[in-house]
Amino acid sequence: MSDPIYAQTWYDENSIKPSKSSNFNEKLNRYDFAVIGGGLAGLVLSLKLSQGGATVAVFESKTIGSGASGRNGGFCSAGWAANPIKIKRLLGEKKAELFEDLGVRGFEWMKKQVSKPTYKKVNVKFGELNLSLAKFNNKDESSLNPHNLKKYLISPRYKSGLINKDSFQFNPLNFMRILMKECLENGVHIFENCSVLKVERSDVINSFELLTKSNQNFIAQKVIYATGGYGGLCTSKLDKVLLPIKTFIAVTDPLPGTLKDHIHTEFMVSDNRRAGNYYRRLDGDRLLWGMGISAFGSKSLSTIKRDAFKDLKSHFPNLAQEMSTSGLSFEYVWSGFMGYSRNFLPYVGELSANKYALAGFGGHGMNTAPISAICLSDFLLGNRNSLNSFNGVRHLPHYGSFGKVAAEIVYKYLSLKDFISEYRPI
Ligand SMILES: Cc1cc2nc3c(=O)[nH]c(=O)nc-3n(C[C@H](O)[C@H](O)[C@H](O)COP(=O)(O)OP(=O)(O)OC[C@H]3O[C@@H](n4cnc5c(N)ncnc54)[C@H](O)[C@@H]3O)c2cc1C
Predict the structure, then answer these.
(1) Domain total for the chain?
(2) 237 and 320, same structural domain?
(3) Are residues 147 and 67 in the same domain?
(4) Is residue 39 lining ligand 1, measured as CB closer than 6 Å?
(5) Which ligand 1 atom sits nearest the alpha carbon of residue 338?
(6) pLDDT digits (tens, 9 = 90+) for 28-49
(7) If you average pLDDT over residues 165-184, what whole number do you get?
(8) Nearest Cα to 347, choosing from 229, 262, 233?
(9) Are residues 51 and 3 in the same domain?
(10) Which residue intervals of 316-400 are DSSP H helices?
């Protein structure tokens, strides 16, 4: 059975054709920068470095967008994986403000990017409905009450909701493929199916040699690890700091007629639980359903499918019932890795002399990965202040399996807190 981490996604079958990646016979004798990882972080960094006049090679184990960046929920909003209260506690008020501002700038950058005519195929739709399962607090005037919520969806569980007209949904794989084209047009060399296995000091002065699985060696002056939650192929200090955490997505069979009766809105929908769901309608009357995390083991495709159905049923029992009656279910299920640090903040900056990290965006990378990449590229191109916002971030070791157990316990604890607040009177 195929590994859910690389299982076929709905995006794989509903996206534009990728550009042809670079050929080994184009490779330069030496690059200014070698970027390991062809996700959103790695590509935005490469584009910016190359636009700044540097020579850049990107190495991607599989294909561009095969990591989290091309198989995620496609939700883009401001903010970070850590919530604002946590960020304030970790960084102090002043730094936290700068950090929050970066999250907004990342969101604005993405918004500008997707509005370019060349990015039309990413199929942007604006608007997010953020729901609460806790009892409706009628003192909050901006909040939709259970009656008004019915205009958007029919579910017995949600008690209130807020609309954010600015956030948007999009096809992340198309975004990655268009960004790849833009990188190539700007002179970036992109080598796919080219895992970096080792980075060693080179005989060439002030350089590293990258040894790849394709039996090709490359020389670069500086190396950036933009490996997301997929690190560990070539060990770096990052592996001690970032835990690979899995999360899951399921996409239904086409549900013509049925789906819109239960979820009327085209807005992307999320809920404000600490361990919540996110979902959105896709073209072709399908529903994309995002859920859960796991630090351990491997769930089979059939287990993810079963869990998704159970989860959907607990929010939309009538929809689930109609699906069962018609013999419909989830056609696509998959998972992906997110890189999480102990404090949920990313690692952006120097790892050791001339080696840098750009990873750890957790489940909120669509705005945070690009803005972090922009800050790092400015730094590498000579603006020594551009990483100041990241200076106070501590990088704590996760202690391997111990960290994974801790992550599972925290997730269970948060789910329990969610459960209690759902049933607690206000
Ligand atoms: C299922 C899922 C749903 C999500 N939904 C959302 C969402 O809706 N909104 C949101 O904001 N965020 C979401 N996220 C999080 C977001 O996708 C990530 O934070 C973001 O994509 C991280 O980008 P990245 O470039 O750091 O990592 P990735 O996109 O994972 O890229 C890292 C790449 O590095 C490559 N790599 C690793 N090691 C090597 C090596 N040695 N040699 C060569 N290549 C290597 C990997 O193959 C991979 O392609 C989701 C994540 C997942 C998994």
Answers:
(1) 2
(2) no
(3) no
(4) yes
(5) 53
(6) 999 999 999 999 999 999 999 9
(7) 98
(8) 229
(9) yes
(10) 317-325, 365-380
Query: Do 238 and 268 share a domain, yes or no?
Result: no
Shortest-distance atom of ligand 1 to CA 70: 29
Tell me the residue type at 347: Y
Atom 13 of ligand 1: nearest residue by CA position: 363
Q: How far apart are CA 211 and CA 218, in angstroms?
A: 7
Atom of ligand 1 nearest to the CA of 366: 11
Q: Is the pLDDT score of 426 beyond 60?
A: no
DSSP state of 219: E
Residue 324's pLDDT is what?
97
Q: Give the distance (Å) from ligand 1 centre to CA of residue 20.
A: 21
Residue-wise over 281-314: b if at least 16 C-beta within 10 A, else e?
Answer: bbeeebbbbbbbbbbeeebebeebbbbbbebbee
Nearest to 243 by CA among 68, 423, 399, 117: 399
What is the CATH classification number for the domain harbouring 351? 3.50.50.60
- CA distance linking residue 333 with residue 306, whole number of Å: 10
Q: How far is the CA of 147 from the centre of ligand 1 (A)?
A: 38
Instruction: Tell me what ipTM this predicted complex has.
Output: 0.99
Q: Please tell me the distance between residue 75's alpha carbon and the centre of ligand 1 in angstroms.
A: 14
Task: Give yes or no for a contact between 72 and 174, defined as CB atoms under 8 angstroms apart.
Answer: no
Which has the closest alpha carbon to 114: 65, 70, 174? 174
Q: Output the domain CATH number for residue 324.
A: 3.30.9.10
259 and 157 in a common domain = yes
pLDDT at residue 131 greater than cutoff 70? yes
Domain ranges, residue 157: 125-169+243-340+399-426
Ligand 1 atom at shortest distance from the alpha carbon of 361: 19
**Residues ≥6 apart with Cβ < 8 Å to 145:** 136, 138, 160
Using the atom order of ligand 1, give the atom closest to the CA of residue 195.
42
- Ligand 1 pocket check for 223: Cβ under 6 Å: no
Please, what is the angle between helix 93-114 and helix 172-185, to 10°? 80
State if residue 228 touches ligand 1 by the CB under 6 angstroms criterion.
yes
Q: Please give the Cα distance from 422 to 260 (Å, whole number).
A: 26
